[in-house]
Amino acid sequence: MRSSTGTENLHLSTEPEARDSIETSRAAKYSLLFLLAGAGLTVYFRYEKARMARARIAEANKGIGKPLVGGPFHLTDHNGKEFTEQDLKGKYSLVYFGFTHCPDICPEELDKMAGMIDRVKAKHGDVLLPVFISCDPARDTPEVIRRYLAEFHPDMLGMTGTWQEVKDVCKAYRVYFSTPPDVKPGQDYLVDHSIYFYLMDPEGDFVEAIGRNFTVDAAAKVINDHIADWKGKINKG
After folding, report:
1. Residue 170 labeled ligand binder
2. What is the pairing mode between strands 128-134 and 157-160?
3. Cβ count near 57 (within 10 Å)
4. Is 193 flagged in the annotation as binding?
5. 153 is annotated as contributing to ligand binding
6. Which of 12, 72, 188, 198 qualifies as a FRET site for 170, CA 20 to 30 Å off?
7. List the disulfide bonds (predicted).
8. How far, in Å, CA of 15 to CA of 236, rounded?
């Protein structure tokens, strides 16, 4: 009888402890699930906040009626073919203004542009058209630009035109243009220009200006994020 009573007492004392252990385990699991759900919602809301901010920037930059940046232009690419604003449509395009005789800033920025191209291509494929527009039409012929850009990246497409055509496209993109007209061979003159990359969407609308202060990674992230947000058609290849 003593032995039986001792066994019964043992069962009576361990059953509440087992129930407490199960309840504690359940509470820990629920707490963990709650924390994970909270973390997931935090990440989601941060992503949505950033996406909506990018959408507001892109929409604001389109302006009302006439675009704030961009518009009709007529140039010649480095292969000698006609190129207009219509040729920017279908892909995202990254437009940079410079000149081949630029001693330091343009080479640095074109090196950055090459890095952006590779990072965007690695994430989204061939969806970005990188465009270099010369602010020095007197010296930058299509052949000169073609050889110059070959040192940076094979995907870059260079543009030039007459003095008036270049002046017009600079005005459309709000780029400072200082090159004088009717330059004589061998004449010295100052070429100055704005230092921005202009990101345009597949419909040819201005999205965002990327300044010189951006690193390659930061600039590529801006472009990749806008591409990821795009809901319309986009050409690859």
Report:
1. no
2. parallel
3. 14
4. yes
5. no
6. 188
7. 102-106
8. 67
Please name the residue that has the structure tokens 């100055």. 192
Q: Are 133 and 168 in contact (CB under 8 A)?
A: no
Q: From first to last of its 237 residues, what are the pLDDT tens digits of the chain?
A: 444 444 444 444 455 555 555 556 666 666 666 566 565 545 444 544 454 555 555 554 454 444 579 999 999 999 999 999 999 999 999 999 999 999 889 999 999 999 999 999 999 999 999 999 999 999 999 999 999 999 999 999 999 999 999 999 999 999 988 888 888 877 888 788 789 999 999 999 999 999 999 999 999 999 999 999 998 889 987
Q: Options 3.40.30.10, 3.40.50.1820, 3.30.230.10, 3.40.50.300; which CATH number does 74-229 get?
A: 3.40.30.10
- Pick from 74, 52, 54, 91: nearest CA to 205: 91
* CB-CB neighbours of 5 under 10 Å: 9
Domain borders along the chain are 21-66, 74-229
Tallying the residues shown for the chain, one arrives at 237
CA atoms within 13 A on the CB side of 104: 1
From edge to edge, which strands make up the β-sheet containing 82-84?
82-84, 74-77, 157-160, 128-134, 92-98, 196-200, 206-211
